[in-house]
Write a structure and sequence with these properties.
Helix content of chain A: 55-70%
Shape of chain A: elongated
Oligomer: heterodimer
CATH class of the largest domain in chain A: Mainly Alpha
Radius of gyration of chain B: 20 Å
CATH architecture of chain B: Orthogonal Bundle
Order of helices and strands of chain A: HEEEEEEEEEHHHHHEEHHHHHHH
Number of domains of chain B: 1
Structural class of chain B: mainly alpha
Number of strands of chain A: 11
Structural class of chain A: alpha+beta
CATH class of chain B: Mainly Alpha
Distance between the termini of chain A: 38 Å
Order of helices and strands of chain B: HHHHHHEHHHHHEHHH
CATH architecture of the largest domain in chain A: Orthogonal Bundle
Number of helices of chain A: 13
CATH topology of chain B: ABC transporter involved in vitamin B12 uptake, BtuC
Strand order of the largest sheet of chain B: 1-2
Radius of gyration of chain A: 23 Å
Low-confidence stretches of chain B: none
Largest sheet of chain A: 4 strands, antiparallel
Strand order of the largest sheet of chain A: 5-4-7-8
């Protein structure tokens, strides 16, 4: 009982803090929440590699000019002796940027491959950097263009996959123990990101403390959600499909509560939003990314270890296997489910905290990756712990690699398409068991 | 008074019509056949886009374009149904919502010569508006809008009549039996898979009519018209009115859309002006949209928990865990 009161207090504090989120909105941009201006020093790099790929070769093209137009200003970049060009542009999340290759600046005998347009429009989605590829020279292999970029693309994909796995693992654990397909899981992700923003920017705390508080409060949010809401529904005997539709209603509600407080704005944390890139061979990374990866991997390994080895972890797996049998052996099913909800929500909150660095904080941050999380756990196998992690990595890499072949706006579609294909040929996923699909 | 009048207007307006058609289509799938189709927005999108592009890019005659729209929707239902209808209910839900999202992203980001990206397709309703018999405002609606409404409500009426007859026929009884106990129907020698597929196609086609009405009403179609929010609002309407009832989706769409408009109208009055009645730290006029959708969420949660059969439904028929 005392625990429940404590959790409610935590939630109240959160609500008050969320209220604080509105103030910078009204102060900064008044009546036009959609118009966000670049904050000082916020930049992102648009880069690409120009190589003459005629006849399957790859000769770097030096001295070609690429112009990046953003918000009326032009940033010009010239390719160096390795064919690399980089343009640093102000970062405004969601801004459309036009990238134009000056075809006259290409050396004689090198031209854009047929069907390639010299002008591209891309959307600024993150501060990790964006890539624009041009196919140069006649050739027969379309895929060749992205191959030299492949290490970086795979790194980006694995990075996203590891962060995604935090959310997917929670979703999978909750599905495994309660059977609930929780459509409101993305909102737990958003919750973590918005809280971190509130602590870091509105309250001015350091990012470390903000992130820690956000993760703890996310866990508390999961605890409260289960004890005051889902547990009661389970006791009432509400069916799983009915609960799934309830979770859709909850998703709708929470997403719009977030929008109520934050407006449609996209925002970034105060610290580490544009770290310096370090180039190691074909890959550019930042120290911040390594720290994020480290945190995520430690948490993932910690939770999987706990599930394998600890008492409560074994109880969790027993309930996932057969709740009635688990209850009859003396396991307190409700308590274990509450723990799962708390841990799952804390993991999702962490996912949001980390996503907030590379993608901007917005009311629908989590809603946008909800289906990607579903794709991940379906590919890996619904309810399987390692399946959720491996599925996330696969989906993360697939999303990034797909940008070689299809427009980047469609990269989420690639993941969802994989989801549908997997349901078609192997509905139990890679690691799932046949009986789970019913 | 103005607020009430505009809410009543919204209750029978163009948006209520296309939500209503989408809900009737969903009623066939979810209400009668028990299929959890979370991709109804995708059916509307494919119908509307196929029609719009046929006219705008290929100059096809009106009825040919309508046929193209319907055919494309039926094709989508088949493509979607073949792999997914064998799956468990929640898998079907995830697959259909994912498919609808793929369709929306596809229209927004590919074949920009035809779909024009996020700007969408326009300039296709000349033939439709040339047939408009109304020249002056009717009941305060613009003549163009009123024409769309007349056609829309006629379609609602016709499709409801069709369903009324179908659901009393042996075909409808088999469908309801599948919802109640799939195995029992199978043991009677019925091809369950085929019946489910027919329900998916029929519901999709009725939804597609809603897509046409949306397109005519706006004179354009954009990918963002067809987000999964549309599907969820349609679910709320259907459950409010009562699934597996002919009148359920009509009642749900009119009452729910009317109430939503009434509430946001009242909130609009309370927050309007330089010195609004509600303090600005509590709510500003820009936050009304969020409150409106919060109400959708709350309505869906409360209905599902306390009255899953809605106003007219039968609780026994919405025993959602039969499977």
């Amino acid at each position: 009982m005392r625990l429940r009161i404590a959790a409610l207090m935590a939630l109240l504090t959160t609500a008050v803090l969320l209220g604080g989120f509105t103030h910078p909105a009204t102060a900064a941009d008044g009546r036009a929440p959609a118009a966000v201006s670049a904050e000082d020093g916020q930049t992102t790099t648009v880069r690409g590699l120009l190589q003459d790929k005629s006849d399957g070769g790859s000769t770097p093209v030096e001295g070609a000019t690429v112009t990046v137009t953003t918000g009326g200003t032009d940033v010009e970049a010239t390719s160096n002796d390795r064919g690399v060009w980089e343009a640093e542009v102000p970062y405004v999340s969601g801004e459309q940027v036009e990238v134009t290759l000056d075809e006259d600046s290409l050396p004689d005998g090198v031209a854009l491959r047929e069907g390639q347009s010299a002008t591209r429009t891309i959307t600024l989605t993150n501060t990790l950097g964006l890539r624009v590829n041009y196919l140069l020279g006649a050739g027969n292999s379309q895929a060749a263009s992205g191959l030299s970029e492949l290490p970086q693309i795979i790194y980006n994909g694995l990075y996203f996959g590891v962060i995604l796995a935090l959310g997917a693992l929670g979703l999978s654990m909750i599905f495994g123990t309660t059977g609930l397909t929780n459509f409101a899981h993305g909102e737990l992700v958003t919750f973590g990101a918005i809280l971190t923003y509130t602590f870091n920017v509105t309250a001015g705390l350091s990012i470390w403390i903000s992130a820690l508080l956000a993760i703890i409060l996310s866990g508390a949010f999961g605890y409260v959600q289960d004890t005051v809401f889902w547990r009661r529904l389970r006791r009432r005997g509400t069916g799983l499909i009915a609960m799934m539709i309830v979770s859709i209603g909850l998703q709708f509600l929470l997403r719009n509560v977030f929008q109520f407080f934050t407006g449609g704005r996209t925002s970034n944390y105060r610290q580490y939003s544009t770290p310096e890139g370090i180039t190691a061979g074909p890959i550019t990374y930042t120290i911040r990314d390594l720290v994020c990866l480290f945190v995520a991997i430690v948490l993932l390994l910690g939770v999987t270890f706990a599930l394998q080895r600890t008492r409560i972890g074994r109880a969790t797996r027993a309930i996932a296997d057969n709740p009635a049998l688990a209850a009859s052996t003396g396991i307190n099913v409700d308590r274990v489910i509450t723990v799962v909800w708390t841990v799952g929500a804390a993991l999702a909150g962490t996912c949001g905290v980390l996503l907030g660095f590379t993608q901007s904080v917005k009311f629908d941050l989590g809603a946008q990756i909800l289906l990607v999380m579903f794709a991940a756990i379906t590919v890996g196998g619904l309810g399987s712990i390692w399946g959720a992690i491996i599925g996330s990595l696969i989906v993360g890499v697939l999303i990034e690699v797909s940008t070689i072949f299809i427009p980047s706006e469609l990269k989420i579609a690639a993941a969802l398409f994989l989801l549908i294909i997997i349901l078609l040929v192997r509905p139990q996923g890679l690691l799932g068991r046949r009986e789970r699909i019913g | 008074m103005d607020t009430i009048e505009s809410a009543l207007r919204a209750a029978i307006g163009i948006q209520a019509v296309y939500f209503c058609l989408a809900a009737i289509g969903l009623n066939v799938q979810f209400g009668y056949a028990g299929l959890l189709n979370f991709g109804q927005a995708g059916f509307l999108a494919v119908g509307a886009y196929a029609f719009a592009v046929s006219v705008a890019s290929f100059d096809l005659p009106f009825f040919v374009a309508i046929f193209v729209g319907l055919a494309a929707t039926a094709l989508l239902a088949l493509i979607l149904g073949i792999p997914t209808l064998r799956l468990r209910a929640d898998y079907l839900a995830i697959a259909t919502i994912a498919a609808a999202e793929v369709i929306r992203l596809f229209f927004g980001a590919s074949f920009k010569d035809y779909f024009n990206g996020r700007d969408g397709v326009s300039q296709f309703s000349t033939a439709f508006q040339e047939a408009n018999p109304f020249s002056g405002p009717v009941l305060g609606f613009r003549p163009d809008d009123f024409w769309v409404m007349v056609v829309g409500w006629t379609l609602v009426l016709l499709s409801s009549l069709l369903l009324l007859l179908l659901m009393r026929s042996p075909w409808g009884r088999v469908l309801k039996a599948i919802r109640e106990d799939e195995e029992a129907v199978r043991s009677l020698g019925k091809n369950v898979y085929s019946y489910k597929m027919q329900a998916l196609v029929l519901g999709g086609l009725i939804g597609c009519l809603g897509g046409f009405i949306l397109a005519f009403g706006q004179n354009s179609v954009q990918p963002d018209n067809f987000s999964s929010d549309l599907t969820f609002i349609v679910y709320t309407m259907l459950i409010l009115g009562g699934a597996a009832r002919i009148f359920g989706p009509i009642f749900g769409a009119v009452v729910f859309w009317g109430s939503l408009s009434l509430i946001s109208g009242i909130l609009g009055d309370l927050t309007a002006g330089d010195n609004p009645i509600l303090p600005t730290w509590l709510i500003t006029d820009q936050q009304i949209g969020s409150v409106r959708f919060m109400i959708v969420g709350i309505a869906l949660i409360l209905l599902m928990i306390f009255r899953p059969q809605g106003v007219f439904g039968d609780r026994k028929e919405i025993a959602l865990d039969a499977r």
